Amino acid sequence: MKVGILDSTLREGEQTPGVVFTTEQRVEIAKALSELGVSMIEAGHPAVSPDIYEGIKRIVKLKKEGEITPEIVGHSRAVKKDIEIAAELEVDRIAIFYGISDIHLKAKTGKTREEALNIIAEAVSYAKEHGAKVRFTAEDATRADLEYLTQVIKTVRDAGADRIGIADTVGILYPAKTRELFSYLSKIPGVEYDIHAHNDLGLAVANSLAAVEGGATIIHATVNGLGERVGITPLQVIAAALKYHFNVEVVKLELLPKISSLIEKYSGIPTPPNFPITGDYAFLHKAGIHVQGILNDPRTYEFMPPETFGRNRDYVIDKYTGKHALKDRFERLGVSLSEEELEQVLAKIKSNPNVRFYRDVDLLEIAEEVTGRVLKPRPPEKVEALISIKCDSNVYTTAVTRKISVIPGVKEVMEISGDYDILAKIEAKDPTELNNIIESIRSVKGVSSTLTSLVLKKM
Ligand SMILES: CC(=O)SCCNC(=O)CCNC(=O)[C@H](O)C(C)(C)COP(=O)(O)OP(=O)(O)OC[C@H]1O[C@@H](n2cnc3c(N)ncnc32)[C@H](O)[C@@H]1OP(=O)(O)O
Ligand SMILES: O=C(O)CCC(=O)C(=O)O
Ligand SMILES: [Mg+2]
Q1: pTM to 2 decimals?
Q2: Which residues does the Swiss-Prot or TrEMBL record annotate as the active site (predicted)?
């Protein structure tokens, strides 16, 4: 199956209310998307503002220098000035859009169908004259007259567009209709299709899969599903669905949590815990019957192993817990309890129905109360810590960050705002090793002070 991802986090994603990316963030996001392995990056609409222009310029430069590999796409209205601005940036492809439903023609551009055909044909030819590859996106295609849509596609193909975006701009498609539409349009020779599916009815992923079955070869997605209103196809979910249903790996699946966190941080939009694949609860189980199942064979309640997506499985303890989960949890803690003692601990848990999560310390406390013994849990296999780092005022924080990022044991480093400049995530096998890592960080030139926080519990 031939299918790739166009990531539009930098264009559609930045259309999410409240989201703005800085130029530096744009560059970092483009690098992360390239590392992830997307086919195309829709880097923005350069005519919108000088900072977006600058961001695209930096991203195109990275592409020319061979630092990133995806095709770089610039968005444009069917307006000469917009096209010229995109062309002068030398993006690989100019994506010209135009609303072609009668609703859009009447309310937005005030053009007749015939006039619109001329405008878009001229725009596509103009972009081609500037040497770029061209995608034409039929905005609101799914509410447009089908015969007119066909006419539009043939017109822009003849004017030089080799890709056509079919935009479900208000998210009203459903899978059977999507498959039928793309199968029909795929009969038109000389073009390939992109699906751009909005999620207003929660069907963006399903519609994107159906479009691929109908012949689309590029799916538009954004990290965490960002975009206008409720957004578009979330990259992590469509990537997982393509793997599960078609055994196609469109991106490096194990890197999805990392890019999801990066976009949460830069967009300021947290994903809910029950978000598929990258949400905190995506591989976290609860009901006793489920946990008994996954302890015997995780396939009972997982569609794919969490490790595929760089995640781990776990389960929580509360009144829904059963004896198998509880026995396993105490074994993990290195504490041996008799069947009867486990029953008593379980009864205590069930008699406190409003506790949302029992932490290990709570469970040990109950077990000590029930058994009357002092219980010694096994020490943790590794020590994790967050180190907040302050830099001297005259140093370039990014240079310090880079030096810290290569110290063994440092798993992740970020530049942050507030009292400290940098945050580093550390993993060590014991406190002595942790201390050595902290010493290495403190000896980096430009680091003025550090504050260490040990991780006590992770969800
Ligand atoms: C479904 C989608 O997401 S499509 C992508 C949407 N992207 C954006 O809107 C990018 C952000 N937008 C902007 O920064 C601004 O709207 C700009 C720079 C594009 C245009 O700004 P302004 O010139 O001030 O116009 P404004 O946004 O108020 O109105 C849109 C104008 O573009 C016209 N227009 C809308 N779509 C298109 C199109 N695809 N091709 C040509 N003209 C278009 C409208 O008819 C209107 O024209 P008018 O000024 O002659 O009335
Ligand atoms: O250019 C595109 O592919 C899509 C434009 C858009 O964002 C939309 O129609 O929702
Ligand atoms: Mg859109």
Answers
A1: 0.88
A2: 290 (proton acceptor)
